[in-house]
Amino acid sequence: MLAFHSLTSGCDTFSTFCGIDDECHAVLQRFVILLYDRASDFQNINDCRRVLFTRKNRAIENIPPTADALAQHIKRATLQASIWNNSLDSQYVIPSPTNWGWTVTSDGSYRSVWTITPEVAKHCVQLTTCTCRKRCTSCKCIKMEIRCKKFSVCEGQCSDSDR
User: Fold this and answer.
1) d(Cα 161, Cα 59) in Å, to the nearest integer?
2) Which branch of life, at top level (predicted)?
3) CA angle, 5 as apex, 58 and 17 as ends, to 5°?
4) H helices of 55-153, where?
């Protein structure tokens, strides 16, 4: 940790609830990039994700989170660190978790906000493929109400009339 001085100085801002500025977020992105690829020159975590996944053939589990997912995690960690840091203060008022990576569910409990970026599969149907060999009955294509693609296992042979 001592070798990454900008991270150490950046963590000093977590003792107060001033928020996470762009400079601090950039330092944390760079730190996380180095955790996944020590030789990387990337400054942007999304660019690093793309290269690690496409060029270095890393499994999705072995690439860093998206910039948005990292930002949500930083918010939750900052809230927790602030609560711990002020735990001996008898008059400490805990800020609303909804501003720090949490959302309130219908039953009044809190749930983590993992990301605010929509899932790519829901918005990029070209990436959806099915594994049906002949006639599709319950594949991803049917669930998303789209026609099978030529790069699916069925090679696009399934059609709406076959279903």
Assistant:
1) 37
2) Eukaryota
3) 90
4) 67-85, 120-123, 140-143
Q: How far is CA 25 from CA 7, 21, 54, 109, 138, in A?
A: 10, 6, 25, 28, 42
Helices 45-54 and 67-85 pack at an angle, to 10 degrees, of 130
Per-residue pLDDT of the chain (163 residues; tens, 9 = 90+): 445 666 655 555 554 555 677 888 899 999 999 999 999 999 999 999 989 988 887 887 889 999 999 999 999 998 998 899 888 988 988 889 998 999 999 999 999 999 887 765 555 555 555 556 666 666 666 666 666 655 455 656 665 444 4
Give residue limits of the domains in the chain: 5-88, 118-163
Spatial contact of 44 and 67, defined as CB atoms under 8 Å apart: yes
